[in-house]
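Cast an eye over my tokenised protein here and flag anything odd:

===
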Amino acid sequence: MFGGMAYLCGRNMIAQYHTITGTDTARAAQYLREGHCIAMPTETVYGLAADAFNPEAVARVFATKERPATNPLIVHLADVAQVDEVATGISDTARLLLQHFAPGPLTLLLPRKAHIPDAVTSGLPRVAVRFPAHPVAQALIRAAGMPLVAPSANRYTRISPTTPAHVLAQLDGRIPYILDGGACTAGLESTIVGFENNQPVVYRVGALPLEALEAVVPGIQLANGLHRPVVAPGMHHLHYAPRIPLTLTNDVAAVAATLQEPYAVINFSEIKQGLNTPYQLVLSPQGDTAEAARNLYAALHQAEALPVSRIIAEVAPEKGEGCAINDRLSRAAH
């Protein structure tokens, strides 16, 4: 075994490590085969990876993130042909979506096979399955020789990581290895699609825009409501949140005018004039929703490190990735 683990805290299964960041895929795969969690890059966000078929390794993921066991995980596979290894009863519509969008930022909620550990699905009858497009993630899954669960590599409800530095800031000492694949190119979690009465339903908007899904599956429905029962990952009403309060608004100036304390602003496309703050960030100077999505979590990490008491975030246009940006910011608002 590679060195690094100092102790294991009994039933909580939180280990103490000297966390290393590197590019050694073989080393990362060895840690996974030994039942450890490591951080891996994907095109969406960095994931906290572990052997999906090892219940003890899956339990370490929940403990490391401090994630409740009622919040299920996504199983990551390297090749679309492997979907039948973890799911059954796959509909023609599901296979059509895979044909168009996998590998990529699409997660499908499918009837699980019996050998999938209950801990992965939180005891629910469906398993969330994704095929990451990131070449390092694909290489790691193949090298490890197993499907991987990989929720975002952060503390539960905190800001998702899109760089190795983001992971280290939250999980230093909790995992042995961060596999460095550079900054994430999509920057938002995957879009999750399931089926109700054989009709496709979007449970979580994400890096795959609704418009792209509608072009392949006309009439796809959006599962509205932040307080629906949790049937898929990422449905908790408080998520992706900085340590300091965040206000989401269409009118940044109006909110800023009510504040006496120092604040930072996350603008969609341009700096606002006349605000009493030196701290303004812009997600996309070109007004591009894909670029804004890619920069969102980095901006939130940057803003929460500033000497301010509140973050004001501007609502994005409700098109393309803008829907997912607003979803993340609305869940982060507190």
Summary: The chain has two domains: 7-222, 246-332. The first helix runs from residue 25 to 33. The chain has a mean pLDDT of 93.
